[in-house]
Amino acid sequence: MAVFATPLFAQTTTPATPAAQVAQAATSASPASQPSASQPSESNTLPAVKVTGQVDNATDFQSDTSSVGAKVPTALRDIPQAVTVIPKAVLQSQAANSFSDALRNVPGITIGAAEGGQIGNNINLRGFSARTDIYLDGFRDRGQYYRDTFNLDSIDVLYGPSSLYFGRGSTGGVINQVSKEPQLKKRADVSVQAGTHDRYRTTVDLDTPITDTSAFRINAFGQSLGSSRDVMKNKDYGVAPEVKFGIGTPTEITLSALIQHNRDQPDYGVPPLNGHPAPVNRGTFYGYTDDRTIQDVQTFSARIKHRFNEDVTVRNQTQFSHYSTEARATNAASVLTGPLSTSTALANGNFTNIDPSKLFVKLQGKDRNINDHSVYNSTDVEWKFNTGPVKHDLLAGVDLSHETYSNQSFTATSPGMTSNTIGVVPLINPPYTTRPANVKEVATNLAESSANDVGLYLNDTISLGEHWKVVGGVRWDRYEASIKNSINLPGYATRTNYFTSVRGGIIYQPADWQSYYVSYGTSFDPSLEALTLTNGQQNLPPEHNKSYEVGAKLDLLGGGLSVTQSLFSIEKTNARTANPDGSYTLDGDIRVRGYQLGLAGHITSNWQVFGGYTYMDGVILQAFDGTQGKTPANTPRNTLTLWTTYQFTPHWEIGGGPTYMSSRYAANNNFVQVGGYTRWDAMAAYHAKRYDVQINVLNLTDKNYYDALIPSDGGRAVPGYGRTFLATLNYRFF
């Protein structure tokens, strides 16, 4: 939902000025004019002045800092890894309301759908799963729910293994959601949106100062969304209150919460036929009209930051989260040659000469109740000091966490059918009905697991003269996890893993607009990383990941346009693989190499761009499950995204751009291939002092494409949006 904080016609039209000029201006600025909470003043390199002139840079596509690469706000040029920051200006311009829609701006990301026991946002980053590598304000956001952008200031993506700061996981990188924060400026913004396919949405953003140094802010949304799919319907709402004390003083305290409720229609996609998604109408839905996924999220956070002086800062953060999911879902399982649940099932890509109109699909239940709890605490100290001519920016910290997870699964079986089969429907034009009343639902396995982690880390950024920086760090983790199953094996298992992660980088900055780097990093993936387990893996030590990267970050056109490039290689050197006897060993080897390009900022004062391109060469180098030499699942060779806007009068703005993805495989066995596609989006907006009217067209050419992939049952694919029109009205009371 687009909510512009400032009308575009009120902007200045001068290009962004170099950071050096900003630093000079900031020296004499009053406290009220210092950077906002989203751009703290402790950053080594202050942000460049943007064309909006507003505190929150509500209309700027370019970002200068991020905390995702160093735990604290750091200039992007000082992070020796590729980073993509999606600011809220891009999300507003695109009317990107969901987390998945927002991530389409990130090259190298692909979307997975609900899989097995996993529900919610499932992301692949540079060819590796990042489902447990999603963060909210620096803490792991491990719940299985569908995230929204209503309370986000930006989404920051750090590429490559990053266990130094984030502990377990982060094979392909991490994704951090940055929440909006209270500011010492009164605001009241309301936005309403309506679109085709019965899409309706409202958001509210209220901010009020309490004292000269404290403020309260609350964001809320509610929506009812239809779809170009025949049956899909989602109804969601959420609220995010936050209060901040001591703004601009040495001690700042922030208390915040996120409360969200989703009642969505689960979509398990289209089954494969002859090695590709079955040739059915885009709206075809396999399931029942009363299928549902009900999710509740409650997250509470407390942060305190104390600045002793310009050189020493201490921070402590605590977060408690509870996530619950009730799923009554149906998926298209086997493709059958007859109308009975015992009919012959196709396999291995479902190759057949039988006419699709004579084939059938078995519908299976995916019913389960999931509960996640987590408590995180992080304390860090930042100390800036000199040893002779050498400058140090030292960061040391300790992370503590406790997580629990439970998953009660069910079988749902109709009379006369094989176990966990609810129905059999034609592949072409299946009927849409409610779930049969005589379905027998039986509770099956209850999986309960917990984990405790202690992480100690130390990182130093060393400045050698004006042009060179050396970044080096080390982290030690003790990760203890256990699982208990009521029926499945293992009945009980526990394992404690110790792992040391490292990170190193060299940065060369010959001018204030150039930064070149080389880096190396590691991470680890324990068997119980997601607090779920496949039997036979419980005694295996963690998988190891390593990354090499070389890149350049350039600020062109007077600092107005950021251009980044990188070459990378990520390798999982001891991947878990299944042996013919059903056991598992750490003998696999998966590698993804590639190139990435990113653009963000102004070409002229009225013309902005945001986009990127990634080339990925992924290969399973070694495996004993028949996948050696194959391409990893959901790893396209090429991905490209580009969004551009042009303000051709003080009031009128137009924009648009393509999203391209080449073909990819649904599973590591490469039996099912999903074709590539190019989707075009467009927008037009009128901006006045108090309001904006914006029209967005998603999938302008009505391209029939597949968006999210599911590896199970041979490999299913979920169709993307059909052509969708969205009209948005934003009103500002102040």
UniProtKB/TrEMBL annotation:
Region (Disordered): 20-45
SUPFAM superfamilies attached to this UniProt entry: Porins
One Pfam entry name: TonB_dep_Rec_b-barrel
Keywords assigned: Cell outer membrane, Membrane, Receptor, TonB box, Transmembrane, Transmembrane beta strand, Transport
Main location: membrane
Superkingdom of the organism of origin: Bacteria
CDD domains: ligand_gated_channel (cd01347)
Membrane topology: Multi-pass membrane protein
Similarity comment: Belongs to the TonB-dependent receptor family.
Protein name: TonB-dependent siderophore receptor
Organism: Paraburkholderia hospita
